[in-house]
Amino acid sequence: MSTLTQSKPFDKRRIYSRVSEIEVYYRRQVEFHEMVKVSSSDDAADYFRDQWGKRKIDHVEQFMVIYLNRSNRIMGWSRISLGGQSGTVVDPKIIFQIALKANAASIIMAHNHPSGNSKPSDNDLELTKRLVRAGKFLDLQLLDHIILTSETYFSFANENLIG
Question: What pTM does this model have?
């Protein structure tokens, strides 16, 4: 007589209990009234300059984003990429991943041009258009894209290049 190995019956509850819960939340570090309010491109440029620091803005290209609530108060900021003297790689998925996790209402992004020339490149223009489109799809507005140099800045919003 042959013996068959009887396996345990399939227990969905046991399998389902081993699936990890994904929890998403944002924890504010300061009181609401202490959150920095952005009312203009000057405000945003000043905030970004503080994050860069004077010694780094002329060194290598970096890309940063500030995330805002519905009152245009800064919820937080993130350095998205760090590149070389002539460019840096920006992954839109990372920008929006952070924005969605924080439940941000809008974003302002910035990068620096170590060359001192604040004029946007064709790549800068195309990236901005892509991110505006993606933000509209997600109902998450891109308010501005700022190009910083150590002496000046260029605002896409001030030049009506945010559509």
Answer: 0.83
